[in-house]
């Protein structure tokens, strides 16, 4: 699949915004901590990936009722669903000068019911041929996402027979439907009932 930059200006994928608040002290503190051990862009990008995937539990898996949507809150509270964790990873990348985009899949249950949007990150490392999608959702039995630049190792591969979709567009900010759902949810169970089903 060919990924499409919604904004042709690559520097737009380095910018801070309300959700990807990479200038926040909590984000900067995390970047400094990771950068002490991982100095080049490649090892840093992988270390930041592993940190967000493994050290920040997916709130559905952990049972955490809180809803986070700013990168700084995800890092502070150590919780979030796929959207929030993707926002946090994008912030950690952008803070180190690595272009990062938010992108999405539409996934469904095994019978094709209950479609919902799933959040990913695409990054572009120096000298790379293009963007590489990553999934920081968090692993569990049956889910084994890994950092990979040459072959995607996402949590799920879309199944067209169930009307699942890989959306090719790379966004500089969270998609408005995603951000609306996150901001409006008083808790994670409510959010689970109001996840967008398409973009």
UniProtKB/TrEMBL annotation:
Q: Which residues form the Transglutaminase-like domain?
A: 34-134
Secretion signal, residue range per the UniProt entry? none
What the entry lists under Gene3D superfamilies is as follows: 3.10.620.30
**InterPro entries named among the record's database cross-references:** Papain-like_cys_pep_sf, Transglutaminase-like
Q: Could you tell me which SUPFAM superfamilies the record lists for this protein?
A: Cysteine proteinases
This protein's name: Transglutaminase domain-containing protein
Species per Swiss-Prot/TrEMBL record: Streptomyces gulbargensis
């Amino acid at each position: 699949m060919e990924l499409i930059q919604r904004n042709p200006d690559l520097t737009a994928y380095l910018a801070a915004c309300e959700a990807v608040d990479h200038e926040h002290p909590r984000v900067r503190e995390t970047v400094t901590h990771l950068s002490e051990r991982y100095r080049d862009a490649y090892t840093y990008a992988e270390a930041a990936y592993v940190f967000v995937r493994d050290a920040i539990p997916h709130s559905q898996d952990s049972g955490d009722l809180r809803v986070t949507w700013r990168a700084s809150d995800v890092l502070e509270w150590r919780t979030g669903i796929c959207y929030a964790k993707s926002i946090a990873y994008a912030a950690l990348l952008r803070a180190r000068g690595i272009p990062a985009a938010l992108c999405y899949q539409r996934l469904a249950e095994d019978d094709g019911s209950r479609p919902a949007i799933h959040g990913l990150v695409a990054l572009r490392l120096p000298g790379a041929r293009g963007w590489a999608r990553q999934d920081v959702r968090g692993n569990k039995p049956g889910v084994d996402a890994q950092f990979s630049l040459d072959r995607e190792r996402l949590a799920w591969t879309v199944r067209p027979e169930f009307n699942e979709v890989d959306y090719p567009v790379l966004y500089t900010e969270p998609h408005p439907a995603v951000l609306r759902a996150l901001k409006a949810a008083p808790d994670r169970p409510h959010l689970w009932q109001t996840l967008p089903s398409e973009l």
